[in-house]
Amino acid sequence: MTRPLGKDLLGLEPLSGDQIRLILDTAEPFKEISERAIKKVPTLRGATIVNLFFEASTRTRVSFEFAEKRLSADTVNVAASGSSVSKGETLVDTARNLEAMRIDMVVIRHGASGAARFLADRIESNVINAGDGTHEHPTQGLLDLLTLRDYFKRLAGLKICIVGDVLHSRVARSNIWGLTKMGAEVAVCGPRSLLPSAIEEMGVTVFDRVEAAIEWADALNILRLQLERMQAGYIPSLREYNRVFGVSRERLERAKRDVLILHPGPMNRGVEIDSDVADGPFSVILNQVTNGVAVRMAVLYLLSGGRPELAEAAKKSGGER
Amino acid sequence: MAAPPKQSTILDARSFDRTLRRMADEIVELNNGTDDLVIVGIQRRGVQLAARIVSLIEEREHASVPQGALDITLYRDDLQTVGPRPLVGQTQIPVDVHSQVVVIVDDVLYTGRTIRAALDELADFGRPRRIALAVLIDRGGRELPIQPDIVGKTITADPSQRVDVLVQELDGRNGAVIAAREAEAGT
Q: Are residues A296 and A284 in the same domain?
């Protein structure tokens, strides 16, 4: 019995355009559930999901938890601090112990690139990558795609520029894979010290000046400048960064009339994005957050396989009406 | 073992129209008018039938009745047994159903499991004063204690047969047909 996405969601790179489209289309009806008086459907009743977060996260963790609860799954949150991980237990031992308690899925956020894959290869439960190092953050990429599709009614042919610290960004990577697979044109813009050296090989254009990127793009996805990058010497100062690459209202005057502004959060207002842009008419930053729950519900639904051995018996009992 | 699928007609296009017109009248009669009435079609073909019933009621009664759609996929009791995840359609309930009279419209009533799921889903939107069930074809074979209030046509079909309602929008014509189930047909 084939599963539409396979066992795990580890990134957008391994997915086909059709699989991405299936997730986005499945997310559409899930949006409505969060608008109901009783925001809950019984679909994953009895399924147990562990949210294993080795890195700080508010938005992603809460979003996954809402998605799980609105599908009626039972959820447990494990954070690295305060768990046996802080006593030196390895990732795979932690997961095996959890699996011995008969769980069905693991959502993992980890600082090491490849951690999700490492786990997925060693346990039977479905694994969803909620961000691994600088590798991928597939559900963030998907919710960005869904938000763009909501507004433009298409993804093919759209021009999207990712602005900022692309080098350290798993969000950027998932966006580039997802958008290019769906036929969008992708560009990146930022200081050369924060762009991967072989970025053109991913099929993207590079803008050195943010003004040029703003004129070109249908939408800007502005990345958070991680403040610790300054100490590490990637940029001279936050002020300097804002002066050269910050997206301000003045700069947006040269943009297309219906340009969209995305940001995965958390924002550094006054650094990569000015407040009047973040809160301005072109911003869909909060729509991204709303869509995040729907996209994650869709992924949970599509991954949670039925039990194929029961399918034969069900078929024999005839129709469904 | 697969016998050649022999298909015979239960309703042709004209009897399809006539039947829906009668069902629309019976719905208005059941509710004693069109006040507080909400018509909700079950995805997929129930939605087209509901739309037709709403426009028939509008023609006769000169009143517009709110129309909704229910997709019961996420409430199915066999989600753990079907293989790949079925596609989910749109659910849309345009009004607050609290203390309204909701008429669920579906194409074929068989085991009753779809209706059980629809009742559960509807309850998540509020507490209607009454929920009634209108189906174009009742083919018998119930597995749950569920009965229709309004029926277009009652037939007795064998489990080895399948009953399909056809609508112009999706199938290019209106009607209802019965045929032998293909050997490997899923649900």
A: no
Domain count, chain A: 2
Q: What is the pLDDT of residues A2-34, one digit of tens each?
A: 578 899 999 999 999 999 999 999 999 999 999
pLDDT at A255 over 50: yes
CATH of the domain at B125: 3.40.50.2020
Which residues of chain A have a CB within 8 Å of the CB of B117? none
- Please tell me whether the peptide bond between A321 and the residue prior to it is cis, using omega within 30 degrees of 0: no
Collapse the DSSP code of A160 into the 3-class scheme (helix H, G, I; strand E, B; otherwise coil) and give the result.
strand
**Model confidence at B134, in pLDDT bands (50, 70, 90)?**
very high
Chain A residue nearest residue B135, CA to CA: A321
Q: Is A198 on the interface with B (CB under 8 A)?
A: no
Task: Tell me the chain A residues in contact with residue B87 when contact means C-beta distances shorter than 8 Å.
Answer: 25-26
- Domains in chain B: how many in total? 1
Give the ipTM of the model, two decimals please.
0.84
Alpha carbon A104 to chain centroid distance? 21
The C-alpha atoms of residue B159 and residue A154 are separated, in whole angstroms, by 44
Give dist(CA B109, CA B104) in Å, integer.
11
Domain that holds residue A74: 17-137+291-305
Q: A190 and A270 share a domain?
A: yes
pTM of the model: 0.90
Q: How confident is the model at residue A230 (pLDDT cuts 50, 70, 90)?
A: confident
What tens digit of pLDDT does each residue of B94-122 get?
Answer: 999 999 999 999 999 999 999 999 999 99
Domain assignment present for residue A122? The answer is yes
Q: A87 and A162 share a domain? A: no
Strand order through the sheet with B37-42: B67-70, B37-42, B101-109, B130-138, B150-154
pLDDT in tens, A102-155: 999 999 999 999 999 999 999 999 999 999 999 999 999 999 999 999 999 999
HSE-up (13 A, CA, CB side) for residue A140: 28
- Whether A172 is in a domain gets the answer yes
Contacts of A1 in chain B (CB under 8 A): 83-84
The domain that holds A67 is classified in CATH as: 3.40.50.1370
